[in-house]
Amino acid sequence: MWTDRLKELGIELPAVAAPVAAYVPAVQAGNQVWTSGQLPFTDGKLPATGKVGAEVTEEAAYGYARQAALNAIAAVDDLVGIDNVARVLKIVGFVTSDPAFTGQPAVINGASELLQEVFGEAGAHARSAVGVAALPMDTPVEVELVVELKS
């Protein structure tokens, strides 16, 4: 079902990014899967570093949030299979922000809109978009995902 939707959209799930510290990409607890914070790795590399509103534009960061969410979907797929997802419950998006930057919600829309494209109504979710001083590896964004599994 969701695998077919990805094909319709022309989206291919990337390989799951190797953890950069002592954690696993995703864990299952009952009928939920929680991902670790996913960075916007593309082919094993960060596409940019720096603060949004300074070295990174809001528009570019939107794309990075989209990629981070795609990486989170890949972590869920690797653990339980994407077709076992009933719905997206919540995402948390972190944006490395210049002190004057206040557009975190617009940046994390990159993740939210991807989830809604892929999962349709089941992609509607609760969300937090948080500005932070720094993230691992000086990445501009990081996204966590919580999904509910089918019974």
Automatic annotation (TrEMBL):
InterPro entries, A to Z: Endoribo_LPSP/chorism_mut-like, RutC-like_sf
SUPFAM superfamilies found in the cross-reference section: YjgF-like
Gene3D superfamilies: RutC-like
Domain of life: Bacteria
Annotated Endoribonuclease L-PSP/chorismate mutase-like domain residues: 5-149
PANTHER family noted in UniProt: ENDORIBONUCLEASE L-PSP_CHORISMATE MUTASE-LIKE DOMAIN-CONTAINING PROTEIN, ENDORIBONUCLEASE-RELATED
Name listed for the protein in its UniProt record: Enamine deaminase RidA, house cleaning of reactive enamine intermediates, YjgF/YER057c/UK114 family
Organism: Corynebacterium afermentans
